Structure formats: structure tokens, C-alpha cells
Amino acid sequence: MKELQDKGLGEIKGSAALTQQHIADILSSPATSISSPDTLIKRVFFHNAILLACRGGEHYQLKIDQFSIREDGGINFQRYRSKNNQRGVMGGVAQKIPIPADPPNSGGPCYDYKLYFEKRPVDAESDFYLQANPRWQETGIWYRKQHIGRNNLSGFMKALAQETGIDVNGLTNHSG
């Protein structure tokens, strides 16, 4: 079968990949700013897709305790299980993915993550992605204690592409 695919025969289907320009356009768009709960959660989602290579359903399974802030300002992410890291028969060890600290005086992924951590209610569910509070400007509370549903999360990447004007056919939560 592999030999036939190597010869270019058979159907090869995959997700569309983002270019560096697409990534820059998405991160510089108002749709992924840090000025509101809706846009911050999309920005953090995008970081998770790009930096942690989270595939579709893996976003829904993320827990807040998988992230820890290091003394140098960077963040460690513990991946317990993914499509490509099954941890073996005995459970194995989590894969540690370090996110480097942001350069001084610059906003970067670590700044965005820390802002999201700060805006989460302390007694929220352990799920990583929380629902935006529609009354956040009145209350000052950015997020509800409940998680974002699987169906909602599954459309995040396509929504980001539409909101930022990126035209990539086949873009899914696997893209990135």
C-alpha cells in the first residue's frame, strides 16, 4: 500500500497547512487580540495549535494543570497522551513541551498564556478552554466557570480563518 502511495497512486487526504504569512496575519488580526475574552481565547487556541501541535480533539481534552510557569518566565506543557504519544502499556511518562520565555519588553505566547491564566476564575472547571462571559465589561469577569463544548471548539480554526480573511481550503483544527 505504501509503495503505491509513494508512486502517487491512491487518495491522499490531509488538512491544509498554514504558511508563515498566514500565522503572522492571524496573530496580528483584531480577531486574536488580547483585549477581550473572545479574542484572547482564540489567540491561546491558536498558540496551542501551532506551538503544541494539538490536533482536533486534543484541544477539548486539555486541562489547565498541564501548564506550569517556569522561573525563567517560560511555560512547560505536559502532554500525557496524544495520537503520536500513547505512553505505552504501563502509562509511561508525560511528554514535556517547553514554551520559551518571551523576549524582554515584548508580548508573546507566554504573555498571552499568563493573561489567560490570570483571567480564569480560580474555582473554574479543570478544562483548559472556558466560555467567555458575555457581560465581562460590566462585571470584570472574563470567563465563566464552564468549559467550551466540543462542537464549539471544533470550528475554532475555520472561524479564525474567516475572521482574519485567510483563504485556505481544507483548514481544520489539525492545520497549523
UniProtKB/TrEMBL annotation:
The entry's keywords: DNA recombination
Gene3D superfamilies linked to this entry: Intergrase catalytic core (1.10.443.10)
Molecular-function GO terms, alphabetical: DNA binding
A Gene Ontology BP annotation from the UniProt entry: DNA integration
Transmembrane segments: none
Superkingdom classification of source: Eukaryota
Keyword Methyltransferase attributed: no
Name this polypeptide is given: Uncharacterized protein
Organism expressing this protein natively: Rhizophagus irregularis
